[in-house]
Amino acid sequence: MAMSFKGYALIGLTGAIGLAASASVPTYAQEKGAIKIGLMLPYKGVYAVPAESIDRGFQIALEEFGNKSNGRPIEIIRADDELTPSVGVQRFNKFVQSDKVALVAGVVGSNVGIALSELADKNKMPMVFVNAFADEITGKFCSPYIARTSFSANGFEYASGKYWASKGVKTAVTMGPDYSAGRAFIGGFKRGFEDNGGKVIEEIWTPFQKTKDYSAALTQAANSGAQIIYAFYAGAEAIQVVKQHADFGLRTKIPFIGDHWVYDEALWPALGDLALNAQHVATHYPSIETEVNQKFVKAYNAKYKQDPDVSAALGYDNGKAIMLTLEKLGGEMPQDRAKFISTMRDLTFDSPRGKIKFNAQNSALLEKVYVVEIVKGPDGKMQRKPLDQFPGAGDLPGCTKSF
Amino acid sequence: MQPFLIQLLNGVQLSMLVFLLAVGLTLIFGLMNILNLAHGAFFTMGAYFGLVVANNTGSFWLALLVGPLLPFAAGFILQFFVLQPLAQRGRSTHLDLALLTFGLLFATAGAVEYIFGSAFHSIVTPDVLMGRVALLGIEYPIYRLFIIAIGIAIAVGLILVIDRTLVGATLRAGVDNREMVTALGINITFLFALVFGFGSALAGFAGVVSAPVMSIYSSMGIGIVVTTFVVVVVGGLGNLKGSFYASLIVGMTDTFAQAYLPEAELFAIYILLIAVMIFRPQGLFGAVGRVA
Fold it and tell me: If A247 and its partner were Cys, which of A32, A215, B134, B141 is the partner (CB 3.0–4.6 Å)?
């Protein structure tokens, strides 16, 4: 009840502003004026930090093209989906009806992503997801109007499960937030791990956005007898669970292995030394020694005075894929908007994390996944040391449409 | 047995944290008949003010002492200058004041985000309370035992004050019969504001105490208000001892559901709430027979 009241108030307000804005702009101006991109991110709440990073990475990508495509300026219109499907749907409708955007980008939560995929298909509105990793989005809910520029949960986590099983880990207990992305990530890990000889002894699910104290779940995990805890958490939840894992003295008992969201650099100030010596898997980290990445890290540092975290890199990929597609289309959104997405599908480009290619369901694939350790660098600041790398896995089948 | 013991301690620790919040809320409701939804805002305020103090002085103890002062002042001012005048003008229906304080809860989260950004912060655990202690074959973090100790100390202290002192007697009288207390020449407006401020300070205190375990962020107070209300209703409105026992019941229900029946965790405490509302609407420990 609490959230919905706030939601309505905000919708009323943004709706009013939207109406006022659309009334004052003559419609014909939109034909030749700016290309409007609706950017939907959960700017508040547990994923506020990743949302901010994605927004920044997105801007860096646009600036690389001078914020213009074929001479037409790009205008970003932002909306906050509050990580709530019903709110996301309302914001999406506002994008379509009153902002008259050319396409919608962003979206972090898979719960919101699933709600929007159907809507994008119905409205024939190109939807370019930045995160929304749940496999169903480019599987069961696939559409010629939907693309994802990051990767699917299976592509990342199946490969990770396979990797840890090949490293002599026989048993694991999993922990994750109980919602679509958590289920998709941990599910991917479990398949990869068990297909390659490992065994998940226990799966622990914590209520998403509601859990503050993980002591009960961690106690259960520690007593399961498994060799490792494999977890997927992000934002505020990641800080709490990593801290409490250390508080209970479990670091020497059962390692807490996660990914670049659990050990996101945006969380390092809050984690302090607890992040030190943690090993995790990552799709991107700032010190990858490729030209594209160093250029991106430099541009990001110049603008925001800090290293980009993985969310910033994913936001950058999202913006860059859109800009490259627009460039190919001569800065115009084609009449048949599905053509925008099919043009994007044919793209291949170098991104900070590696080469990006799309599969037949418009989902970007992972060229490689890195295994890293967080260490203190020569300057006394924390940084990541590469230990190993392995290729990403394919997507789960599930898409029955052909396009 | 060992995991059970750890879960038991986890439950008590959560209960004590919830108690620090619930006790202020129950006093405010019992005494002033105000459904104070802004209680979570004071929790947030205390945590952030404590964070500022800790960052500038490096002392957790100073943060613990000074942190609650801001919510105290804010609570006092809110009651004395806003809620009390509204009540005197007849605008004191539950809905009016609930809406006002509800708005304040979100306004605080927004203001905090404006000033501090949306990042997560933490106060470092003081060295004395770092590490773990071995007892009965298990190892338990000292800081969490400290939370339990603080909760019990405050509960005992408050019960002594309420049961044994003149101030306590006045408060109890205020809950039972407000007109009579005023008729006896007690400046109830001032007393109310003081209690409101004190309740808010306890919420802020809880914010600082929980900081080393959980993280500090702008909307931290919004979720916890709901749990706190469940405690207040289960314990009986305005019932101090009741809220202590109810905190234990709610904290244990939550922890054990999370540990042994995770599917039920989300609604376990609400089932408890509904059962109490049906069978004992005055609360499990309420003798006054007052109904929300």
Answer: B141
Q: Do A247 and A386 share a domain, yes or no?
A: yes
Cα–Cα distance, A363 to A375 (Å, whole number): 33
d(CA A242, CA A358): 34
Looking at the fold, whether A109 and A205 belong to one and the same domain comes out as no
The per-residue pLDDT for A18 is: 44
Structure tokens of B190? 């001032």
Q: Please tell me whether the interface predicted TM-score (ipTM) of this complex is above 0.90.
A: no
Domain at A234, CATH number? 3.40.50.2300
Among A204, A209, A247, whose Cβ lies nearest the Cβ of B262?
Answer: A204
Separation between Cα atoms, residue A374 and residue A382, nearest integer Å: 7
Looking at the whole model, is its pTM more than 0.80?
Answer: no
Task: Assess B290–A contact: CB distance below 8 Å, yes or no.
Answer: no
A112 and A259 share one domain: no
Tell me whether residue A25 is in a domain. no
Average pLDDT score over residue span B41-66: 93
pLDDT at A13: 47
**Which pLDDT value is given to residue B1?**
56
Give the pLDDT band of residue B192 (cuts 50, 70, 90): confident
**Would you say B240 and B27 are in contact if contact means Cβ atoms under 8 Å apart?**
yes
The Cα–Cα gap between A212 and A192 comes to 30
Contacts A306 to B, Cβ<8 Å? none
Nearest CA in chain B to A42: B118
- B169 to chain A, any CB pair closer than 8 A? The answer is no
**Residue span of the structural domain in which A274 resides:** 154-282+370-391
Q: How many Å lie between the alpha carbon of A328 and the closest alpha carbon of chain B?
A: 37
- Residues A304, A278: one domain? no
- Is residue A12 included in any domain, yes or no? no
Say yes or no: A278 and A175 in one domain: yes
Q: Do A233 and A376 sit in the same domain of this protein? A: yes
Domain check: are A77 and A122 in the same one?
A: yes
pLDDT in tens, B195-219: 999 999 999 999 999 988 887 888 8
Q: Which of A279-283, A289-293, B26-30 is least confident?
A: B26-30
Decide if A334 is inside a domain: yes
pLDDT at A277: 87
Question: A402 lies in a domain?
Answer: no
Alpha helices in A48-101 (DSSP H): 48-64, 85-94
DSSP secondary structure string, B30-99? HHH----TTHHHHHHHHHHHHHHHHHHH--HHHHHHHTTHHHHHHHHHIIIIIIHHHHHTT---HHHHHH
- CA A166, CA A391: separation in Å to the nearest integer? 14
Q: Hey, which residues does A41 pair with through a beta bridge?
A: A80
Q: What is the pLDDT of residue A180?
A: 83
> Residues A262, A357: one domain?
no
pLDDT given at position A296: 97
CA distances from B172 to A244, B169, B175, B246 (A): 40, 5, 5, 19
Closest alpha carbon to A144 in A348, A361, A325: A361
Band (pLDDT 50/70/90 cuts) for residue B45 is very high
- Number of separate domains in chain A: 2
